[in-house]
Amino acid sequence: MKNVIVITLIISLQITSTKSNCQVLGKFFYNYSWELTRQETSVYFRTCVFDTVNYWFAGQVKDFTRNGRLLMEGYYREGKKNGKFTFYYESGNLESEGNFENNLPSGKWRYFYPDGTSKQDVTFDGQGFYVHFFIDSTGNKILDNGTGNWYDVYEEYKIPSLITVKGSFYEGKKTGDWECHFENGEFLYKEKFKNGEFKKGFRINPMGKKTNEYFSEVKNKLLPHFKHDVIERFEREGDLTRDDYPFLKFLRSNSPHDSTSSDQIFLVVEESARPVGGMQEFYNHVGRVMTYPKEARRMGIQGKVFVEFVINKDGSISDVKAIKGIGGGCDEEAVRAVKTAPPWIPGKQKGNPIRQRYVVPITFAISSIKIKM
What we know:
The chain has helices at 227-231, 279-289, 294-299, 330-339; strands at 14-18, 23-30, 44-51, 56-65, 70-77, 80-81, 83-88, 94-101, 104-112, 118-124, 129-135, 141-144, 147-154, 163-170, 173-182, 187-194, 197-204, 210-214, 265-266, 274-275, 303-311, 317-324, 344-345, 348-349, 352-353, 355-364. By secondary structure, the protein is mostly beta strands.
């Protein structure tokens, strides 16, 4: 089977004005995938209050299209979504509204179709969600008072196809067969529930045949938009300087005269570090040494482990650590695999070798990563 290793490099953003010695009024620019980018290549932007000591969002945020149409408004407290959030379609119509508590949807949320008609009302309680009613795209109410059929269509980071998950509820509890598939009909998994309790699940290959059995529910029902995880990735960087993000005027500069003469670690450089043989060879190496942890496989754990590492001036890899994990031994395995990679060609700034930091999301998928017993 083909090993799946997803690599994403973090780039830049821009600050417009300061508010105090530890918080700034900022404007962050994003591409189509909601990754940080330069203003001239941006598709969306965010206005916000950003804490420059703790590196987190600290107040009201608003997301806009490049031409200034509002897409979202909400509030952060100490880097976590807390309070009312409102989402809009690019047409300006309301898409959804409700509250977050410590980064999780909380209480009653309302959802709408692009034409403004009601789609569903859902209550989140921290453990799951209760669908009061659901109206399908043709206008039929197919679920009422927690009982009936239900589906959700969502986007996933770096996945070109929409993903659909569907099943049935009885008195607010999942029941019967549930399934998940891509827009083209290719299945991802099938699950069975009884009275809200997960019974079993199977990965499904493109031909619709069962492959790996797993033993805990896939948590992809009614997810918040993937952009939150991508946008908030900047908060996990820590200890950055202006040499990492030249446009961030609030960041300190450790080397005001010649940054390349210091041992500063960079994120964005004039000539980026690269693996000997190319990035694909790095992918291939990590894939060859990866072992899917038995505990994660047994528990059906999958997802992305964000691994941070530094390419030193001599090309060696150091300071490898997982900055966001999924458990089950996957975090440690991702770190171990990256540590075994051969030296890279170091990055350069002003013609001089420098130390450069990378953040690498590695995707663990039971149905696609080779298992070594």
